[in-house]
Amino acid sequence: MKFDLSIVVPCYNVSSYLDRFFKCLESQLDESISIEFVFVNDASTDSTIDKLRQFAAVHNNVVIIDKATNQGISAARNSGMDIARGKWVTFPDPDDVIIGKGYYYLFHNFVAKDASLDAVSFEMDIVKEKDYKFSSDLRCEDGRLVWEGTGYDFFNHYHMGLCSTLLYRLDVIKQNKLLFENYKVGEDAVFNTKFELKCNKVAKVTSEIYTHVLRKNSITNLQSPSLIKERISAEVDVARFFYGLEKASSDITFSNRCLYYKKSFCELALGQVLRSNISIKEIKRFKNTLSELNVTYKPIYFIKSKGSIKARGQILLISFPLLLLVVRPLYKFIIRDRL
User: Fold this and answer.
1) DSSP string, 194-209
2) Between the CA of residue 85 and those of 2, 63, 246, what are the distances in Å?
3) Which of 292, 287, 257 is nearest to 270 (CA)?
């Protein structure tokens, strides 16, 4: 059986969020749009799989992939995408919130009216978990079409966003054999860029149908030394991806866009380096990697930079690794997450 939309949901130890998320999914159901829910349980150690099976018992449009070993969010999305039967696909996270009948609204107001679309980009809200109160009575905001064009032009004009803020034509993904890279962070950026560059037509709409809930114990915010090193490696790899696109293009607008993303991920990696406990030798190696990507941080930039005090402090510290040893404890205290 074919569906209009496949909602692929990677799940790892999210049992406490699933009741809320199930309410969001049920709000999307309507006779005029066929939806399948594809859950990928990534070897959760809590009661996630039990709750997924309970949900599947009362819905005939649910598929569950139950992995024996934890492989990460990218592998989970790839597994779900591989068996998805929808014409369109999207990738919400189960600890986030789909507002009202958001997907239903997008289908009836944009997708159904233009068969040539390959993607629809929509808006999202970002809130801290401690500040968020869920209500099933929320309605998604009415939106309007603000831009449409090729995926190439979309990349040049708009921030690509998370993969949870796009509806994707699944045949574009499968025909071009696109997969999520196995990164701890930044996998959305690489996947979305590859996808957008294959799209003939993308629509940008103002509808805010998704709330990204920042939680303190998410993988992005955990601060173990091993995870920090993995994030540094991933952010450098993503920066290297954009550097490759930047070098290969003769289009100044496109190259500058790639340069922007390259620098952004280098700065994210830099922030991780400065909050980590890696050695001076490793910091020097990181500086050499930045040089290979044509990104340099010299002391004079501390004065010339128009960035924040935090950003300029990062530049200064990476320029003087020995100074970093002295001020690192204070730096880590100042920038630590306060979710």
Assistant:
1) HHHTT-S-EEEEEEEE
2) 5, 11, 35
3) 287
